[in-house]
Design a protein that fits this description.
- The structure holds 2 protein chains of 2 kinds.
- Chain A is an alpha+beta fold.
- Among the domains of chain A are: 128 residues, 2-Layer Sandwich (Aldehyde Oxidoreductase, domain 4); 183 residues, Aldehyde oxidase/xanthine dehydrogenase, a/b hammerhead (Aldehyde Oxidoreductase, domain 3, Alpha-Beta Complex); 203 residues, Aldehyde Oxidoreductase, domain 4.
- Chain A is 28% helix and 23% strand.
- Chain A is built from 20 helices and 28 strands.
- In chain A, strand 23 and strand 24 form a beta hairpin.
- In chain A, helix 16 crosses helix 17.
- The longest helix of chain A is centred in the last third of the chain and has 20 residues.
- The radius of gyration of chain A is 26 Å and the shape is globular.
- The relative contact order of chain A is 0.13.
- By secondary structure, chain B is α+β, with helices and mostly antiparallel strands.
- Chain B has 2 domains: 75 residues, Ubiquitin-like (UB roll), CATH 3.10.20.30; 62 residues, [2Fe-2S]-binding domain (DNA polymerase, domain 1, Orthogonal Bundle).
- In chain B, 30% of the residues lie in helices and 16% in strands.
- Chain B has 5 helices and 5 strands; from the N terminus they run ββαβββαααα.
- Chain B has a 5-stranded mixed sheet, with helices on both faces.
- In chain B, helix 2 runs antiparallel to helix 5.
- The relative contact order of chain B is 0.17.
- The chains are: A alpha+beta, B alpha+beta.
- At the A-B interface, helix 1, helix 16 and strand 27 of A face helix 2, helix 3, helix 4 and helix 5 of B.
């Protein structure tokens, strides 16, 4: 174990051989291209004869489309126009293929949310597109829209988790604490907007389609295009271009924009580029699900949780998208990392006439753990016990059983991350100066966990494949996982280099092109290192065995060259379920995840009592991820995820009116700048998971689960007022602080006297 | 109109509409796509270039304003595949993740004073949004390149 407050480091384990590449901060594989401006993002690409596309969208939240009229006086020459009829005529189905086929790619007779795509146009001159859109008129017969999900009646998906005897638990309880928590929508705000270029094959309209673009999951896009275009899989090729951030926002939405570009390209028989500007991206694409979560918790006076009832509702928007899976993760993480023998979680996704919500880093768990962790502090207040001790009393330890009945066997680190975070935070702020006169300051804690990989049987269904091929230089990774900034290429290459005992520089990665790489499953769910990295490690072991024992990298190269003389050498491996992971989708009981990352945040927050502006001034994040394959990349994931959590907690608010985002621009949808960002102090804990490559678990999502609750708990510590809703904007803080006794303490009032 | 400027040390003449955004002139007329668009309204800084040594949002600069100016873009930093000090530090410190804010961030860092302490770094980069890194690694890189 590293010493108190030690810099995160790979700890050499006695039983582990010394690692040469894993655990080292090698240069990012595609780093030089990104730093010199040579990396090509989708908007940087130009194809001969390329047209530019644009989308006409609904301007009512719900209604029948009575008429779509193109101004006959307008010069439409040079324009390609596509509507839903082109899909059927082309032999395709008008659906965005995801979990349920309920979402049309282009609206037919009705619209179910604002900014729903209805018609597409393309023109060689991008400047003429806006003009073209202006000359199309749509008449609607509006109908009443359900915009408030708390009042919505249609349930898109319901999940229940039950364990023990809830009534008996509450009967034994000495005190019952209830709370209601709300979280708002959040935009992923990848700095590169969504965009695609569709290129029809040169030899005729029905022959095939290639789509290039910004995405997380090329094989999702391929599947969506097959059905839409009525083409066999092998005639749809999808290529990921350098992608400027995803955070879930490029998991499912790219299927929509790729479909639109492909329809235009097929009709125009020319390449079509469809790249959103920021306004359109904010208006039309998915966001984090807003939530309302009710907790009712029965406890003994000493703080032991004996019964926990949680009701969780998410706003799914108009269509199902990935909501059932988001709900699943929200429910499984709803208790937080705590023991409870008697528990019932009821989760529902409600349908509203708003743009569909979708994947965003954390995938439901940030919402449910915000509620769980804010509720822990409310319980501590009710019982008059220390919030840290309340957590310590109930936190999950090795051998404990979760709400889904999973007995935790390996890599359980809740208490260690809690202790380390408290110590580290205390030490860092020991010499902190007193706040400015009048400024309120408080400290808040949150403890959280995050399951790595797809839930339960999800990984078995995905049956992901990945592998290697020998090159003259070394090996090439054949993997469908995408690099979206998180470091996939670098981290995968390190795992393979280490396993093959060859230098990192000898490992290259094939371009993420469905024609070249196998389907490694989507690049989501904190699975790319633990699950796909594990498959690659297995492929590397197999390749190593095939080459026979070699004692040096040079010998590897010699053997590889000999083998290559008799033809290409390729090893593709498929996901194998660990035999001790058992899950039932019917009862929602079993091993929800093979492993969990564990995290603790301590937040220092200051509140200006005049403006009610809250600022996080220091955030400690201690996260156990099993093994840091590349410590700097891991720190980057933790720092970036933490800051997105702080943004969600304090600044980022999607303002909706009549079902339409009102602040669809960066001027007033505020993400943290350098000046809003506290010192984020990270410590990596490495409690290895035997099922992950070199002990690694997932890292991408865990860091965003904790900051919001830590910030809100710090606001309580500073003001004595509970804020149960985020973002904690000055308006909301004023609302809870403007109670009579707080008003008296307010300097603003003093100055009036 | 005809606009002449020095671009990464070489003279360059383009014929563009005077109000065409400098960003588009660089990307479309000069073929330098290293400069990125993130918002088109001067909020994100992804399009930052140096105009006569000063960091500007090229999405807010009309091309006519660049007439006679000295422009440096991210493509002008490295010489024959050798990264500049700032680029090298960004790579080593993990300051670039998805990379879309990186060219603008690097250009804004170029306009910082030597040996800046943390406050001037934060102020100098406050116009450049990054959604990946949480900025910590960017501070590390700037400190490493410019000296503490």
């Amino acid at each position: 174990m590293p010493k108190r407050g030690a810099k995160p480091k790979a700890k050499p384990k006695a039983e582990q051989p010394r690692l040469r590449t894993v655990g080292k901060n090698v240069d990012r594989a595609e780093g030089v291209d990104k730093l010199t401006g040579q990396a090509r993002y989708i908007d940087d690409l130009v194809f001969p004869d390329m047209l530019h596309g644009a989308t006409l969208r609904s301007t009512v939240p719900r209604g029948r489309i009575l008429e779509v009229t193109r101004d006959p006086a307008f010069d439409w020459s040079g324009f390609t126009v596509v509507d839903h009829r082109d899909i059927a005529e082309g032999g395709g189905r008008n659906v965005v293929a995801m979990i349920v086929d309920d979402q049309p790619l282009l609206a037919e007779n009705e619209v179910r949310h604002q900014a729903e795509p209805i018609l597409l146009i393309a023109h060689a001159d991008r400047a003429r597109l806006a003009e073209g859109l202006k000359h199309v008129t749509i008449r609607y017969q509006p109908s009443e829209a359900v915009l408030d999900f708390e009042r919505a009646e249609t349930v898109l998906k319901e999940i229940g988790i039950a364990r023990g005897d809830l009534d008996a638990g509450f009967a034994n309880a000495e005190i019952i604490v209830e709370g209601i928590y709300r979280t708002g929508a959040q935009e992923q705000l990848y700095l590169e907007c969504n965009g695609m270029i569709a290129v029809p094959d040169a030899d005729g309209e029905r022959s095939g389609m290639t789509v290039y673009g910004s995405m997380q999951c090329p094989y999702y896009v391929q599947r969506a295009l097959e059905g839409l275009l009525g083409l066999p899989r092998e005639r749809v090729r999808v290529v990921q271009t350098t992608t400027g951030g995803g955070f879930g926002g490029k998991e499912e939405y790219p299927s929509v924009i790729a479909g639109h570009a492909a329809l235009l390209a097929r009709k125009a028989k020319k390449p079509v580029k469809l790249v959103y500007d920021r306004h359109e991206d904010l208006l039309a694409t998915t966001k984090r699900h807003p939530s309302i979560i009710r907790h009712r918790t029965g406890l003994l006076r000493d703080g032991t949780i004996v019964a926990s009832e949680i009701d969780l509702k998410l706003d799914g928007g108009a269509y199902v998208t990935l909501s059932p899976v988001v709900l699943s993760r929200a429910c499984i993480h709803a208790t937080g990392p705590y023991r409870c023998p008697n528990v019932r979680v009821r989760g529902r996704v409600m349908q509203t006439h708003t743009p569909p919500a979708g994947a965003f880093r954390g995938f439901g768990a940030p919402q449910s753990q915000f509620a769980a962790e804010a509720h822990m502090d409310r319980i501590a207040e009710a019982l008059k016990i220390d919030p840290v001790e309340l957590r310590r009393k109930n936190l999950l330890r090795t051998g404990d059983v979760t709400a889904t009945g999973q007995t935790l066997k390996d890599s359980v680190t809740a208490e260690e991350v809690l202790d380390r975070a408290l110590r580290r935070h205390e030490k860092a702020l020991r010499k902190q100066k007193a706040p400015k006169p009048g400024v309120l300051r408080g400290r808040g804690v949150s403890l959280f966990f995050h399951g790595s990989g797809f839930t339960g049987g999800g990984e078995v269904k995905l049956a992901s494949r990945a592998g290697l091929e020998l090159t003259k230089k070394g090996v090439r990774l054949l993997v469908g996982s995408t690099e979206i900034g998180q470091g996939t290429r670098t981290m995968h290459a390190q795992i393979v280099a280490e396993t093959l005992a060859i230098p990192y520089a000898w490992v290259e990665t094939a371009d993420p092109d469905t024609r070249r790489v196998p389907d490694s499953g989507p690049t989501v769910a904190s699975r790319t290192c633990m699950v796909v990295g594990g498959i690659l490690a297995r492929a590397a072991e197999k390749l190593r065995a095939e080459l026979g024992d070699y004692d040096s990298p040079e010998r590897f190269r010699e053997r590889a060259r000999v083998r290559l003389k008799s033809g290409p050498v390729k090893v593709i491996e498929e996901y194998r379920r660990p035999t001790d992971v058992v899950w039932s989708d019917e009862t929602y009981q079993g091993d929800a995840y093979g492993a969990y990352a564990w995290g603790c945040n301590v937040a220092e927050v200051e509140i200006d009592p005049v403006t009610y502006q809250a600022r996080c001034t220091h955030l400690t994040a201690v996260i156990d991820i099993g093994k840091a394959i590349h410590p700097i990349l891991v720190e980057g994931q933790i720092e970036g995820g933490s800051l997105q959590g702080i943004g969600w907690a304090l600044y980022e608010e999607v303002v909706m009116r009549d079902g339409k985002m009102q602040n669809a621009q960066l001027t007033n949808y505020i993400i943290p700048t350098t000046l809003d960002t506290p010192r984020i102090d990270v410590e990596i804990v490495e409690n290895p998971y035997p099922g992950g490559p070199f002990g690694a678990k997932g890292v991408g999502e865990c860091p965003i689960d904790g900051p919001a609750a830590a910030v809100v708990n710090a606001i309580f510590a500073a003001t004595g007022r509970r804020l149960d809703e985020i973002p904690a904007t000055p308006e909301r803080i004023m609302k809870v602080m403007a109670g009579p006794e707080v008003m008296e303490r307010r300097p603003a009032k003093v100055s009036v006297q | 109109m005809k606009v002449s400027f020095s671009l990464n040390g070489k003279p360059r003449k383009v014929k563009v509409a005077p109000m065409k955004r400098l960003l588009d002139t660089l990307r479309e007329e000069c073929g330098l796509t290293g400069t990125k668009e993130g918002c088109g309204e001067g909020e994100c800084g992804a399009c930052t270039v140096l105009l006569d040594g000063e960091a500007v949002n090229s999405c807010l600069v009309p091309s006519c304003q660049a007439d006679g100016a000295k422009i440096t873009t991210v493509e002008g930093l490295a010489s024959s595949k050798k990264l500049s000090k700032i680029q090298r530090a960004f790579l080593a410190c993990g300051a670039a993740q998805c990379g879309i804010c990186t060219p603008g961030m690097v250009m804004a860092a170029c306009a910082l004073p030597k040996r800046p302490s943390l406050d001037p770094i934060r102020e100098g980069l406050a116009g450049n949004l990054c959604r990946c890194t949480g900025y910590m690694k960017i501070y590390d890189a700037v400190e490493e390149a410019l000296g503490k």
